[in-house]
Each structure stands twice: as C-alpha cells, then as structure tokens.
Amino acid sequence: MNKIENKNIGAYIWVVPDAYLPPIGDEKLPGHEATCILNLNDKPANVEFTFYFEDREPLKSAKVKIGAQRTLHLRLDQSEALLNVNLERSIPFSIKVESDVKIIVQHSRMDTRQPNLAYMSTIGYPVKE
Amino acid sequence: MNKIENKNIGAYIWVVPDAYLPPIGDEKLPGHEATCILNLNDKPANVEFTFYFEDREPLKSAKVKIGAQRTLHLRLDQSEALLNVNLERSIPFSIKVESDVKIIVQHSRMDTRQPNLAYMSTIGYPVKE
Amino acid sequence: MNKIENKNIGAYIWVVPDAYLPPIGDEKLPGHEATCILNLNDKPANVEFTFYFEDREPLKSAKVKIGAQRTLHLRLDQSEALLNVNLERSIPFSIKVESDVKIIVQHSRMDTRQPNLAYMSTIGYPVKE
Amino acid sequence: MNKIENKNIGAYIWVVPDAYLPPIGDEKLPGHEATCILNLNDKPANVEFTFYFEDREPLKSAKVKIGAQRTLHLRLDQSEALLNVNLERSIPFSIKVESDVKIIVQHSRMDTRQPNLAYMSTIGYPVKE
Predict the structure, then answer these.
(1) Which chains touch D (3 or more CB pairs under 8 A)?
(2) What are phi and psi of D83, to 5 degrees?
(3) Tag placement on chain B: N or C end, fewer CB within 10 Å?
(4) In B, what residues contact A, Cβ < 8 A?
(5) pLDDT band for position A115 (50/70/90)?
(6) Quick check: ipTM above 0.90?
(7) CA D103 to mean position of chain CA atoms
C-alpha cells in the first residue's frame, strides 16, 4: 500500500540486554529463550550472534542462514547444535545479532520452574545506521 | 495540547517477529494471540496482514477495516473467520501489518496450557518512511 | 554526565494499543492495568487520557497533575476516581496520553484470574514531533 | 558485517517508568527486578541510577562500573549493597540510568507472590542526543 521496500525494513544489528536460560523446569515444556528473526528480503540473511557475559569474554556463534521471506524462532537452549556455542542455564547474558541484510528481531523467554509457565518478550533494540 | 495531528501518528507498516498460537489450554480461556491496532484517523484504516513461516511461503490475509477513531484487538485464533487465513496452533510465525493510513500496533499472547495463564506483549516494530 | 536536559527527555504524546481491564480475579490482588508516567521536568505535567474503543466514540479523561521530578503509576481500575471516566472490565480498548510537558510512559497489566498472576508490560509508543 | 562501531551503539541515558519491587513471595526465588545493562565499548562504563517516586524527592545511586564488553544484570532487591540506595518493596517508582559511554538497557520484573512466577520486561526508553 506504500512504497517502502521489504529490503529496507529493519536493521543490520540488534541488541537484547536481558538474556537468561532458566532452569529446565517442566521437562515436557522446558524453560527456554528464543530469538525470533524475520527476514523480509528476497535473499537469505546470514546471521551471527555475539553473547556477552558478566565475567568473561564474549563468544561469537557460527553463522545461521535464514531463507528469503522466512522467519526463524531460534531456541537458545539448543545453542550448541544451532549456533556452535555452549550457553549454560542460570547465567545472565546479553545478545548482539548481526546480519548481512536487514532483519527484525524479537526475544522471548519461557520459564516453567514453579511449574506454571511465565513469559517475557520484547522487540530488540535496533541499531540505526 | 500540541499540534501533531492524529493522522500523522504511527506508521503504515509494522512488524512482529515472535508470533505463535499456543495449544488451546483452558477451553474457557483459550490460549491466543491478539494484534491490537489503533486507528487515530478520521477515516477507516484498510489493513492487511502477511504471515511469514519457517518453512513455507508467506500468506496474505483478506483486508480488515478499522473504523475512524477505533481500536481493534484482532484475535489470531479466529484468523480463518476474520482474515481468511488458516493459522495453525504450535507453529512459529511472524507478522507484517500494512495499512493505507497510519496506525499503531501492539501484539500480545495469552498462554493457558499449564493451566495458569501467562502473557507476553510488545509494541510492534514501526517501519519509518 | 552529558548535556541532554531533563525537560527534553520523552514525548508529549504516547500511545498504548493493547489495553484491557481483566476480570477482578483475586480480590486481595485484583487484576488491573497501570499507566506509569515519569515527569522529569522541573514543573508539573498536566496529563490527559483519551480512551478508544472497538464500537463507540472515544472518551476523554479529566486532567491529572504529576509533580516535578515525580512518577505516577495510575491504576486504570480506579479510573472513575482518578480520571472521571468509567472503564469497564473485559472490554478491549486503546490509550492516548497527552501532556503539556515531555513525559515517559510505560503500560502494564496484572491478571489474577486463574488465579496465579500474569504480567505484561511495554514502553508506550512515543510520538515524535 | 557492517561498519557501525560498538562504541556508537546505544544511548547515554535510558528511562524505565514502571519499576516496583514486589513482596518477596517465594523465599527460594524471591520476587525482584533487574536492570540489565550491556556495555559494548572497549572501556568500562560508569553508570549512575536516579530513582523517582510518587511522593518524595529523587534518589541518586552510587556509581557502578560495568567492564568493557560485559553485561550486568543488576538486581534492584540488592540495591543497598550494589547502589547504596535503599529501595523498599511495594512502592511504585521509575528509573533513569546515565552512563559516560553508550549502553543498552532492558528492565525486567519477576513476581513470585501467588506463588507461581510472573515476568514482565521491556527495552528501556533510549534518550536520543
């Protein structure tokens, strides 16, 4: 309905300060976080995560490809398989997401410890060019 | 109290990366998501959704009209009736909302699986012209 | 530590699309929403709400004064006493907040129906001048 | 993948209007809020909090240092030890965070009163220069 092209929607870099994998809680519905990434472009997005900690050096992930016009809800409790980074539970961290094309990022947590589930979610902080 | 006109408030395009219809949970209070849209204009907003998935082509909805100076909290668990798109539960997706006038969008989830309800919500990502 | 003056922080107009007063739930901890407003100025903020509905005309509130360098967490389940507007429970609505000085707005819901409490919260949508 | 330098990511001042330390709830998982701050710079961030209340003067915290390329999830229920400010539970307040370098801020609450935990979270409001 208007002329902004899909390839110009979003940002190349996004930041999520509050990341934390809660204890596993309910094994049938394990606590986790998911970084949800939408790629509106007509070509794949090559995406890299950097994880920041309170008391040690940042870790860079392997690259993840997200297809054209596709979303990915990346489960951080599966970071070893998906990102080649071992993220422990119960450790506070932060996330920087970088892409070679513009993307849009939202980050959410599910916690099932008590055991009724709790959620939190926020659009990431987009870095302006 | 100041001079920004209502018709200039908001954006034509909004994005929500983290969308997901949870299992139905409590039948008296079924889990759902709602895309909440405010139209501050003096004329109706004609709004269209595009849904993006992890492994298939995007789907475009039928158009929805939101009256002048009205809000709509559109229940996505009723997408077949309201949007002419069949959205399955337990499938990750993302949302792009487009309008012919400026609108303001917030997206929220209620999950009643365990069965105590959990919420998450965020203002959508507004696309700057 | 830097030179942005407090009076230039925030916006005159804020929008919250997803507002809803849930059923009362637990009477000792009744479900509610709160619009949380920070006034960083050296003078009071005169603030007015407009409430938008799905099927009737918007309602304007009485004005609320927020002192210099003060916050107000305004409980919408007390809107009749605080804002001279009767907001019913279980009705979807949206909110526009206007002020004669710049303010910062966040809006949150507590739901205690099931009866374990659920929260949602988001920074409002700030309207750029 | 692109040329925005880490030192230019974020803002010097952030605001969180809805802050509240809930009653302690579950002693093994006490209710709390955390202000989560990421410092992407190659040097430490010196950070100061100002707390705003409904009916008394603002309080300034001691300064907190966050290392280069480090995150801090600062627990506000430990504000006396960490910030030299006594924040009571069950009192509404707001937060301004100021830093001598750019940072990114997200603020989250965990409430365990009922006693199943509830979360809320939002990226703070970044103050543009």
Answers:
(1) A, B, C
(2) -125, -5
(3) C
(4) 12-13, 15-18, 20, 46, 48, 52-55, 57-58, 92-94, 96, 98-100, 109, 111, 113-116, 118-125, 127, 129
(5) confident
(6) yes
(7) 11
